[in-house]
Amino acid sequence: MPADPDLTTEGSAASGASEAATTSATELSQDRYTNFKLHSYYRSSSSWRVRVALESKSIPYATIPVNLLESEQTSASHAELNPMLQVPVLECTDTSTGRAARITQSLAIIDFLEEIFPSRGGSLLPRGAGASDPALRAAIREMAEVINSGIQPMQNLSTFRQIDADSGGAMNGKDFAKGGIEKGLGAAEKLAVISRKKDAARAGAAGPFVMGTFAPTLADACVVPQLYNARRFGVDVDELCPNLIEAERASLDHPWFVRSHPDRQPDAPPTDNNNAAAAATTAAVAAKRNGDKGECERGASAGDDEEQEKKKARAE
Questions:
Q1: What is residue 271's predicted lDDT score, i.e. its pLDDT?
Q2: Residues in domain GST C-terminal (predicted)?
């Protein structure tokens, strides 16, 4: 999914001509795709990843809500967009052909955005000096895949509903999901520690984000939404992955994450009670920053209980 960022080259006049041609091609690419629409669910961690990428490049887009709790992803109209019956789905218009382009799977979508807008706004893979470090870029992709392939599928509503159904109630799908999330975040924590030590050795100090960088990367775009959902499953993330929690604080103060946060999405429930789970993440970070961990945990627990009751009622 990872995208190759904008790499600059220096050289002779011949090289300069090549750069001009590249710039021209880039400008054409940026004008080529317009009218972006994101089919998403506000609490979907995969959708949040894509929203971060869109915000990083200041790409205007319309949100088309798909309520997963109401199984809107199984509708005939959505099935035409994504046969996997999932979110997110990104649609846009290719002005060179006048046809619609449609991409599913969050990492593929982010890769697409990096390819068509290589120099616009920010990038979720390192540019500049970081672009010359293939090991760092690979480590960022590795972290993204730990979340995307190793953790996120465990928490899919369809997964634990199927476990409940197939086991005849002998197994609890939510408990299964919690165990998978805990195992994956434990591994992610170890990878983050390794990367931060390498960055500290190389640069004299590690940055505040997941991989020790000084700007958010694809790793942050995957880890932060996963931590948000882990809390909803009752995972004690403060105990399990303290380094990831430190990085989460840095991200939640960053404009890309502020604007893309679930509680700022058009399909987020409007009332404070209905929005308790989304608010719990922000409250948790703020409370811990102030040293008020006890209040933070009580608020998060209450929000999670309420959300679980609503989910249970809808599922039944």
A1: 58
A2: 133-270
